[in-house]
Structures are given as structure tokens and as C-alpha cells.
Amino acid sequence: MKYLRGCSVVTSLLVIGAILMLPVPGRAQESTMSGTVTDSTGAVLPGVMVTATNNESGNTFEAISDERGNFRLPVRVGTYRITAQLPGFATVNRSVQMLVGQTVVVNIQMAPSTIAESLTVTGEPPLVDTTTSKVGANIDPRQMQELPLNGRNWMDLSLLAPGARRNESVGLVQNRQGYSQTKVDGQDVTINYHSSPDSEQSGYSRDAIGEFEVVANRFDASQGRSAGMLVNAVTKSGTNAFGGTFSGYFRDDKFNAADFVSKRVLPYSNQQLSGTLGGPIVKDRVHFFGSYEYEREPKTYTYNSPYPAFNVDVNFPSHVHKALGRLDYQFTPATRLSVRGSGYNALFYSGANAATNHPSAGGTRGRLATQYFATLTHVLSNRTVNQLKGGLTNYERQDQPIVRWKGGDFPYHPSLHGGSVIIQLRGYTIGASPLNIFQDTQSIRDDITTSRDWLGIHDVKMGGEYLRFHNEFRWCLRCDGVIVADTAAPPANLESLFPVWNDASTWNLAPLASITRWVYHSSSDTEHRYGIVRHLFAGWIQDDWKVRHNVTFNLGVRYDIDSNAHSEKVRFLPWLPGNLPHDKSNLAPRLGINFGLNDRTVLRGGYGLFYAFSPNDGVQQTEGYLHRFENQIFNNGRSDFTTVQDGSWGWFNGSKPSFEQSLQRACDINFVPGCVYRSLTQEIDYPGRRTSYSHQVSVGVQRQLGTDMSVEVNYIFTGGRREESAQQVNLTYNPATGANYPFTDVSRRAFPQWGAVNFELLEGWSNYHGVDLTFTKRFSHRWQASATITRSRFMDSDPRRDQWYIGSDGIVARRPIGFPLARDMGGEYTLAGATSGGGFQQGGDQRQRAVLNGIWDIGRGVQLSGVYFFGSGERFRTTFGSDIRDEAGGSPVTLQRYRRDGTIIPRGGLVGQPIHRVDMRLQKRIPLGERRQVFGILEVFNLFNHTNYGSYTTNENNER
């Protein structure tokens, strides 16, 4: 079995020249500063005026200490000068840095004085978190700007956080459906219309993001729609000084090592240009910031299939544009407004799996996104703050196959330029369909934060939000036919049947008739266009209750409801009656405790229930089948069964029937000889489906060492429940074999009038156990560093199968099968193996990880920084690639493990090779007067050229 394919990481050289004018922009968004003011005897001081002034923007935030001497300030992230004033006492000044999502405790001691004087207190706030119990980390502004980053995707830095579970980061912090959410300035920007959205997340320039927070376990009740991890990022904002940057980043294959599979240096070139500009409109009150980045990457895609004639190189220059603008207006110290708009436009090429796909399966990929967001913050009183947020996001996906018809559009092209017939051979696929998808979301939320004294101090956050989620598909799904030709090995002359790989008019499909099982061909009454709307509501209350000076309880509860999470009101007989109740059980408690053993050591832990954004695939695909008829035509033995010419299809013995004509021919409508079995090969919803969720538990200890170092250990558990898997349910089972009766035996089908029927089941489960050891040294003495070591175990299971049937009310129902099934039929609980089919099973078990990063200011304007990453081999699920059990193929065939010799492929049986990667950056700063400076930067990635494989071919049935 060949399971390695070329996806190596090579040594690269990056030379950067950047001109910076004036200070760098500030950051926006919220964090919280709190503390207690006392006198020199330790007695509390009420009535103290505490003022926080942002060093960069000049924005001021004010609070007055209460009768217990306590104060609380919601502020924007950044560096602050804190001033405490009270008649009869010396004014106290100190500085503090606020990071996103942090609650920093700043206790102030004041001394009596009869004269006007001030006292400056030096020292950093404690590294130990004494208020929360979540598990996560901040990627601070210095790390954002100064660590080496191949490709400048800022999300790659999420790998530095404890609890991280990826070897690379493309768009999501965790590549499992429902287990990630990304927020920028508080706006949910996650693209989640389907089960594999990792590569579709909207991009932001690294120079536009100030910093971000990664929460790996147990975020508070004000956040939701993720059963796993959360990223909170903040964009930069303008300051009181006009400033900007212009940067160029260049990579070239002349600095690259040879690819590990092809044994040659692959052609490569990449250019990135980035600029920013920000400053004041009105000093201390109104500021602007803007950024723009352009990337160009001419790239060569090399195919390495068993068919030499198809192993061509495809050259395509990708282009990416990223733009952002924001305006911040502080009306008064109590009221401020922030407005942001951003745009993303990418065009690139995707070559599919180069080992198992023909070049025609590849094509261009367009990604377009715009986002608008506003935040209004108003301090109602010394105890209460209200924050109103609203915005909208728009996203469009354009997937156009590279294959054309005589160099132009296909005769039938309801979506983009159209697509070809698709041929599914054993272990190899030819052709592709176009896809045009839209997702737009409008959102509004209101948060009220207040502080109350009752048996301690209660910092309470309550609020609610509404989202309108709209998703439209223009998908020519099987509208040109899919030939399933897997009853025997591909013909020896396969290459000659496709003389011009990217011109479908030259393809000779007729010889494939002898090995064809059946053909799928769809028709539509809406030209393959349909859309869905979901209304999502949520409400929450979070109480961080400080019982004593060293004990804080984090108590919260959240409730979510979704109007169209499971196609409750869709009538599609016999699958959905149209009157199902909504899932109203999504009540999620969050419980935590932070216990301080002393000033330097805390224990923390807790439990929470976390509901995911319910998978959208089943919702939109169910709607799609109301407007699309998917013919499944079995091979009738005619020699011209796969002949296609001049609008005539051999499997139809003529022209393609319309949607209405197809319905009349459907066996479930007219069960007569010659009828056509309607197939639901895309997963649909079913009665009783409920929202996915997870149990999360963490227990940890954190200890501060000296003034600038800390160490922490955390145990993390995430128990995923109701996880997605696809299952073909139009089967019955043989107690003698413990497997299904052949699908081709129509009399044995659960629904004899139907073809394949796939349900999007939400019934799988998983358990993740991990222990993270993290060391942190903040920047002092000209260097900073952090390191995380993880030991973990990740197991999961597909759901056990039931017997589905039509109930007495005419709606599908199920019952236990009543006898044991073969182990490849579901129910096995094993170490998790990653799959490439999307959904919850895109991440596999990885036992060990280690990540180290550091920044060293050598002096004389020279700086050295680096990142080391180690990941033990990730586990993958391998498949046979053919439907030996005759389950009707479709989506579940991607997980078929039954071989022709009767043996079963072990679940998650392939373990990849370990990954070792060292990335380094050397930087030299050259001043150009007082207001300008140039940085020369040299970056090297995979410094020691370790053989790192990013993906594997897991299909056994590649016979050549």
C-alpha cells in the first residue's frame, strides 16, 4: 500500500525589508482591570479616583473605589498609566499591560501626605491568574510581530498555546467540525456552512491583528457555539501619532531543499506586500487605522498517480487581497464607539489528492468575504457597563473545475462555467462539478457587566444575542452524471480514453460500460439553486464570585436555541414529517473555581457543558433534495450505457429527463417496472436528531517563579457527544454474516422503492484526555520565552447501527438490530484516526507534542527569535476504497474497511511519522532619523530540513 505522498516541508529563505514611520498602531477590544485600594496599614480606601490612560491612544477610563476599596475598569487592550488620587494621600502612578480576555488584578497602596506629591510604583502585575479557571494563553503583540511565521498566517501562532491540537493551522484552531470558533473584535467570523470549512476562513493580514487569545478548555458562559476551542483576536487601532509601515516578503525556490517525495526542488515563488497607516483625527478621542496586504504565489501542482500520462504539472499563480479599516471614537470617558470593515479576496488552485485524482478533478477556488462590525460601550455607573455589538459578514465560495468543453463553457452550466461527467474508478477519480456557495450572517448582541457585593464580590456579566444565518447553494451536484465504474480494475488503456485531460469533449467514456455499476444523474426544478435560513438566539449569565481574597467561583449558565438546526419544519416524506419539535434542551452550565494557596500559587479547575453550532450540511442538503432529483440508474448491460454525445446519455437512452419527469419515473412515486430509484447520496436530516455538545473538565495549578516567570500544569478532558457521521440506512442485515445484505438485492432493502439514503447522524462520540506542562517567561532582561509539552490520548467511535423502517405513521423509524454486527459496521471505540472526509473526524490521536518559542534582543538593533515544534505521529483511518460489502457507496464508502479477502482494515491503523520543525528569524533594525527605521529580516523554515509529511494517502485500493 502506498500511503505517503508529497507534502513535505522544505527549508526556505525569506528576506524582508520594512520601513516603519512613527509608533506602531495600538490595539482595540476589551479586557478588565480590577483591584483594591488600601492605605499603608492595610485598611481599605473608598472614594479613590482611579484613572487608566492608554499610552498610545490617550483614551482615558475612570472608576471610583467603592466602600470596600474595590474598583473595576473595562478597558481596551494595550499599555496603560494608572493614577490613583485621594485628598490627603500621595498620588500613586504605575504602568500595566492589558492583553485580550484578561482580568488583571492591580492592587494599589496609598500613603498619607500633607503636600502635593506623587509616588511612582514599578513592577509588573502577577503572572498568576487569580480570577478565572479557563485553560488558554495569550499570543501577545511581541510574539505577533517578531516570531518567524511561514506564509504570515497569524493563526499558525495558535500552536503555541497549551491545549492546541493541530500540527498546522490553516483557518481554524481545531480542525474538527463544531469544535472551533473564531472571533475578531468580538464578531463571530467563522465560516461554518459545511463540515470541512478549514480552508475557507476569511483571512486577515498579520499586520492588522494586534494580538489574540486561545481558550483551549472551558470558556465562560458569554461565549458559545463551539464544543471545543475559541480564538478571540483583536485588530489594531490608531494612536495619537501618525504612523505606518510598508513591508515586502519574498520566498523563492532557489533557497529551498528538494521535495522529499519527488526528490527534486519544486518550482516555488511567493511575494507579499503589506502596508498600514494609522493616527489621530482628534487627539485622545478619534483615531483611524487601515491595512492592506497583497500576496502572489505562482505555484506548480504535480500529480503522481499510477497513470504516467495523467501526471502533468499544473501551473497557476494564486492571488490574495486583504484589506481592513477601523475608526475609534471616545465621546467621553464613559462612552466610546468602534467601527470596523474588512475585505478578503483570494483566487487559488486546488489540485485535489494528486495520487488518487485525475488533473481534471482540480480547479480554481475563489474566496470572497466582507465584514462590517460596530461596538458601542457605555459606562452606566461605577459598577455597571453596557456593551452593544452588531455586524454582518458575507462570504462567497467559487469552485470551478479546470476542465472545459472545447475550451469554453459546458453546454449545460447552471453554476459558474459548468463541469464534466465524473468517473469513479477503483482508487481513482476523474472530473469535477462546479460549486458556488454563499454564507451571510447578521448579528446583534448586548452585554451588561456589573459588580455587586453580597457575601463577597460578584462580577456579573449577562446578555443575549441574535444571529440570522443564511446559506445559499448553487451546486451542479451530479448534474452531468457520475459514473461509478468499480466492478473491476480500470481498463489497461485508460489513459488513451482521455486524450486531452482538460477538454471533456475529447473523452471516450463508452469502454467504461463493462465495469460500471451504476450512474448517478440529477435534475432540478430550481437550476440547482436553493437556500436556507437559521435564526439563532442565546442568553447567558456569568458570575465570577470572589468569596474571599483567595477564592473565586466562576459560575455561569448559557442557553441556545436554533430555529432550523435539524430541518424540523421541512416536509420530505417519508423522512421528515414537517412538524418536528425544536431542540430546546441546550442549557449549558459552567462551573469553575480559582483557589489561591498564596500570592504565587493557585489551584483551578471546573466543569462545563458546551453546545456546538449544529452541522449545517444536513440542513441545506435536505432542502436541496426538495428541488433536486438524483437518478440512480443501474447498468442494464448495454454496450452504449456510458456513451455521451450531443445531449444524449446512454444511461437515459436519450436526453436527460426534467425534474417533473424524473419524479414521475421515481419508484417511490410510481413503483412500476422500469421506474428509477431516487437516491439521497448527500446526507439529510432525520427525526430525533439533536445538537452536538461536549463535556469539558480541567484541573490545574499555576506557580509564579520570581518576578517574570511562571509554570503551570493542566489536565484537560473533552468528551464529545452526538458527533457527526454519515450512514447509508437503506439496508437490512444478515444475522448469519453480521453484515448487510447486498444493496443490489432490492428485495432486501429497508425501503425497496428508494436508492441509497444517507443520513447525517449526530450519534458518534469521542474522549480526549491531555496533560499540558507550560513554562512562561515574559519579556525582561531583553528576552522572553514559553514552552508547552503535551501528553494526550484521543479515542472515538462511530455509532452503532440500527434497523431503519417506515413506521405506522408513514415516517421513518428505527429499532435495534438485535444481533451483533461485524466490527467495521460501527460501534468500535478505538484510538481516533483522522479522515479527509470532513466532519468531526478530521483530527486523529497524537500522543505527544512540544512547542518552544523565544525572542532575544541581542543588542545594537539585532534580534533573534525562533519556534521549535515537535509532534509525534498522528493516527489516520485507512480505507479499502471499494464497496466490497455492497452498501451502495456514497459518502460512507470513504470509511469502508472490508477487503476482498474477507479481512478488515484496523480502525485508525496508520500512524504518521513524527514532525520536527525549527523556524528561525534574524532581524536588524536600522534607524533613519527620529521618525523612520528599516528592518532587514532573514527567516529560515524547517532549518534542519527534517522529513515532515503533512498528509498521507490512506486508500489501499490503488492497484497500480
Task: Provide structural commentary.
This protein is mainly beta and 960 residues long. It has 3 domains: 26-121, Immunoglobulins (Immunoglobulin-like, Sandwich), CATH 2.60.40.10; 133-237, Beta Complex (Ferric Hydroxamate Uptake Protein, Chain A, domain 1), CATH 2.170.130; 284-941, Maltoporin, Chain A, CATH 2.40.170.20. The chain has 3 helices and 54 strands. The chain has a 22-stranded antiparallel β-barrel. Strands 2, 12, 13, 14, 15 and 16 form a 6-stranded mixed sheet that branches. The radius of gyration is 30 Å and the shape is globular.
| Shape type | globular
Question: Share of helix among residues?
Answer: under 10%
Number of domains: 3
Between the first and last Cα atoms, what is the distance in angstroms? Answer: 10 Å
**Amount of beta strand:** over 45%
The CATH superfamily title of the largest domain = TonB-dependent receptor, beta-barrel domain
CATH class category label of the largest domain: Mainly Beta
Classification by helices and strands: mainly beta
CATH topology of the largest domain: Maltoporin, Chain A
What is the C-alpha radius of gyration, as a whole number of Å?
30 Å
Counting DSSP H or I runs of 4 or more residues, the number of helices is 3
**CATH architecture call of the largest domain:** Beta Barrel
Task: Please tell me the overall pLDDT.
Answer: 90
| Main sheet overview | 22 strands, antiparallel, barrel
Q: Care to count the β-strands?
A: 54
Uncertain runs? 1-28
